[in-house]
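User: My collaborator and I are trying to settle a disagreement about how two of our proteins should look. Neither of us wants to argue from intuition anymore, so we agreed to look at predicted structures for both before our next call. Could you fold the first one, then the second, and keep them clearly separated?

Assistant: That sounds like a sensible way to settle it. I'll keep them separate. The first protein:
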Amino acid sequence: MKSLADRFRHWFSYEQACNALCVQMLNSVPLDRQGTPEFRKAVDKLSHLMAARLRWLQRLGAVNEAPPAFPTDLSLADLSAQIAAMESHWITYLERLDDTQIGRDVTYKAN
C-alpha cells in the first residue's frame, strides 16, 4: 500500500494535468476575445488559485514569500510562469514529505 505522502504526490500529478488543461483552454480563446472582461476574470481567478497554493506553502514553511492573494492583469505567459513556479515549489516540498510530516499540526495565520 502506498504511503499517504506517496498518495499526495500522486494527487498533485492530477493537479498539474488540470493546470495544463486550464492554460490550454485559455490559449484556445481567439485573440480578439482575450481582452474581454470574462477572459480577464478567468485569467485572474486561475492566477488567484496559483497564488493561494503558494501561500499554503508559505504557511507550511516551505517558501519564504508568496505573491499577493489576488494578482490581476497577468498575461498568459506570466500566468504560465506563475503556474510553473508554483508547481516547482510544490514538487520540491512533496519530494521530501513523509507521513510523519503530514501528521504534524499546522497553525494557520492569515497573511
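The second protein, kept apart from the first:
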Amino acid sequence: MNKPISDSAWKIFQLDDLLSRVEGSEPCFLEYLRMPGLTSALYHLPAGAKDMQAPHLEDEIYFVVSGKATLRVGDAEKEVGSGSILYVRATEEHSFFNISEDLTLLAFFGKADLSV
C-alpha cells in the first residue's frame, strides 16, 4: 500500500510558468518556494537595470537561465551567461552589473553555517 505524500513533502514547478510571471521591462523577484532550510526564487533584471540587492544571511546558488551580465563579489568580477552556475557565500557583498542582455536567474538560498 502506498503511503500518501503530504503537500509539504514535495512540490513541482514548471520553469515556463515561473518565467511568464517575471517577464517585462522592470526588475522582478519571485519567491516561489520557502521551506525551513531552503528558499528558491526567480530573479529577472532587464538589460541596463541596476541590481539593488544587499548581502544575505544565507548561502546562495544562482543558475543563469538566460542573459549576460557581470557578477561582482567583493572586489572580484566575472562575466556570466546562460548556463552559468554561481555560488555566493552568506554575507558577501555582491551584485550583477553591465547587464547587456535581459538576465534571468534561478536563485537558491540555504542556511549557512556562519560560525566557520
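Some points you might bring to the call about the second protein. Residues 32 and 41 are 5 Å apart (CA to CA). The beta strands are 28-34, 38-45, 58-73, 76-81, 85-88, 94-111.
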